[in-house]
Amino acid sequence: GGTTRLEGLNKRRRPHEGRIQFDRVTRVWKAIVERIEERRTFLGFILSTGRPIDLKGNVLSIAFSPIDIFHKEMLEKDEYRQIVEEELSAAVDFPLKIHCLVEKQEARRRG
Fold first, then answer.
1. Among residues 21, 82, 84, which one has the least CA distance to residue 47?
2. Partners of 59 in the beta sheet?
């Protein structure tokens, strides 16, 4: 390719231009969960049972297994969702919202 290593690096560091890469979120996910755990142990635990599966625009989808449906419902409460969105946004330096969903059984088993 025509780009030097340095140019490729600069490209990645560029300001977000209205979108953010999903892998950037997954890279810091564990750290985000830990940060939230420091603020609210309970909330950090809830978040740790979910996993980020998709990012469309500024909405991050977090999937929960059917047995963790209670956790999904807790995260949808305004006060908890706000804390998560706050920490998430701060961690990636981009304003993110979350969307919680329940995974189908077979998707979970696959890995």
1. 84
2. 56, 97
Strand order through the sheet with 97-102: 51-56, 59-64, 97-102
Q: How far apart are CA 5 and CA 97, in angstroms?
A: 33
Q: 3-state DSSP call for residue 48?
A: helix
pTM score of the predicted model: 0.77
| Residues whose CB falls within 8 Å of the CB of residue 2, separated by 6 or more in sequence, listed in order | none
Say if CB 60 and CB 52 are below 8 A apart: yes
Task: Calculate Rg over the CA atoms of the chain.
Answer: 16
Give the per-residue pLDDT at 68. Answer: 97
- CA 73 → CA 1, 3, 20, 40, 51, distances in Å? 47, 47, 26, 17, 15
- pLDDT value, residue 20: 81
d(CA 54, CA 23): 10
